[in-house]
Amino acid sequence: MGAPVLYLRRSARGARLAGVELIGDGLDASWNAGSREGVEVATEAAAWVRGQLRAARLPARLAAVCLDADGALASWVSSPVGGDATALAASVQQPGLVHEIDDDEEEHVGSDLALSADAASPALASITPMGVCGGGRIGALATPDLAARLLLDALDAVGVEAGEVVSVWHALARAWDPGARDHGTRGGDRVVASEGGGTAAVIAPDDAGRLLWAWSRGGEVIAAGSCRLRTVGENGDRRALIGRDALARLAVDWIAWGAQLGASPGRVVALLPEGAWDDEASLASSLSAVWPDSTVDLIEEDAPVETAL
Predict the structure, then answer these.
(1) Whole-angstrom distance, CA of residue 168 vs CA of residue 7
(2) Distances (CA, A) of 249 to 27, 120, 225, 243, 277
(3) What is the pLDDT of residues 45-57, one digit of tens each?
(4) What is the pLDDT of residues 271-304, one digit of tens each?
(5) In angstroms, rounded to a whole number, what is the distance separating the alpha carbons of residues 155 and 75?
(6) Closest alpha carbon to 201 in 281, 210, 191, 306
(7) Where are the beta strands (DSSP E) in the chain?
């Protein structure tokens, strides 16, 4: 049995640890913080993780720690140095850098990210370059990570090795991108492999009522985003519905990203729980209308994020 993955659920725009879920082969357990806040939440969560690993007779090691989408922002950055990955990565670390062209116009030479105060602080957030597509543009993901850092410190204090830290978009791409065959995930076996290593898009809702999407090449994310979905039901039994309005927002995002990165997905993998699609037209035809000339794979998956992990 491989090491499990720890999924962090956060709130308050990513600043507060709301709960964790430990996911692995034959292991799926969750812990909720309730109304508790502060450093003691990370301490209690780490102790719970250590106890679960001990009870399952597993080594004190996690394959990865995965952050949910709460509070994260994704955009592209411009650089005057073309496709040099090192220089592009450096420009990502300078959010909001601008110079004036004239009195009415500004050109962003650093980050185009509209960062919140939390996400703009290096002490509270990580700003990660995504894959380089050429043309001097690169995607960047800003993730508030203070809650994650506190938990990582607490895990280290109880002797749990955390492994790598990834975003939920990276997890989805690695698991479901048809070109990411080398990861050997359960999800990858359910999609026919891509030829030529082109750009793929993965679409999946999370349990917080967001529709997540990621573009990737060979499982490596080059663009990402999310949008809020309409939810129905009572508290504790709420579910998100995906309609043509969500796909229209998706199309607007994709057109903007495609124009900036010079990339476009030729393969779309949509993972939806049963009953999530809320329209008379079929989802396949609606996706094809939104993004023509792409191959669409529809997979019924009750918990796409958890399955990816």
Answers:
(1) 9
(2) 36, 26, 11, 10, 15
(3) 999 999 999 999 9
(4) 998 888 887 778 888 888 888 888 999 999 999 9
(5) 31
(6) 191
(7) 5-11, 16-24, 27-32, 64-67, 73-78, 98-100, 106-108, 125-132, 137-144, 164-167, 200-205, 210-217, 220-228, 230-232, 239-241, 267-272, 295-300
